[in-house]
Amino acid sequence: MQRKTFLKALAALSGVAAAALLAGPAGAQQAYPNKPIRLVVTFPPGGAPDILARLFADKAQLGQPVVVDNKPGAGGNIGAEMVAKAPADGYTLVMGTVGTHAINGALYSKMPYDMVRDFAPLGHVASAPNLLVVNNDLPVKSVAELISYMKANPNKLSFGSPGIGTSVHVSGELFQSLTGTSMTHVPYKGRQFAIPDLVGGSIQVMFDNMPSALPMAKEGKIRALAQTTAKRSAAAPDVPTVAETVPGFEATTWFAMFAPAGTPKDVVARLNAEMQRVYKLPDVAEKMKTLGLEPWISTPEELSAYQAREITKWAKVVKDSGAKAD
Questions:
Q1: For 246-281, b where at least 16 C-beta lie within 10 A, e where not — what string?
Q2: How many domains, in total, are found in the chain?
Q3: How buried is 301 (Cβ within 10 angstroms: 0-12 exposed, 13-18 middle, 19+ buried)?
Q4: For residue 300, is pLDDT > 80?
Q5: What φ, ψ does residue 185 adopt, rounded to 5°?
Q6: Are residues 87 and 222 in the same domain?
Q7: Mean pLDDT of the chain
Q8: Quick one: average pLDDT of 232-253?
Q9: Full domain range(s) for residue 107
């Protein structure tokens, strides 16, 4: 009887151990996240990347807080580099932009990270036109008038941007290239430093992100001439596109989230699923649209393929314009 009792106890213990082993990997997967997640924004507060990051942080239901961390500088390279070199555990993410993940590699001779190899794509978040806006005192009210003025006054105007390599910057370079005009580029450390100078007249032109520029244009603080996407945005249906005057002009700003390369696939899937949920919420989608942002939710694989095409496109634009960050 003692032997039978012993064997039963041993069998029971073996079953518990086997169950624990089987549950181990699943338990480990369920453990993510078990501490706060840092979402790095590579530009100062107030711009589209920051708005999108904070929408995610406010609405995410991951069991842990998402903390937005603004790390601006070097056209977004400072913040992106931090994430590229962070542990690949899903606790440090970046709200990437067309600049940090498609343009900067062509602009900077020495990049602190590889735009593709150092990151695991999580998915697109949104896209937006840039808005060609001018100082109210500039005597132009259309793209055609701006081109005529620039040709009559070469190098007289200055255009601002929140940093070298941003979509705002290369939109201006593309405009000059396609119209045969010339302006002086003035890079700032963020749009919040450029806009007061635009309003005050120290700079006269800017291809600002629509979510930032549209409210100010509606308030009459600056004048909107055109938007940079191929088709007019529903947020500003009365504002023409640059392409309506300059055929072939198109510059789309996009935003997407990335994690460090090597982040486990189950973590990537978990984050993408939460992104899909958050950015499809009716109130979030409505907020984005009122700001001129178009919700654009994709899979990691779709983002990877699109990023490759964008890198090729903008490398040509940068080469043709002769723009360099250093």
A1: beebbbbbbbbbbbbeebbeebbebbbebbeebbee
A2: 2
A3: exposed
A4: yes
A5: -85, 130
A6: no
A7: 89
A8: 92
A9: 37-127+253-321
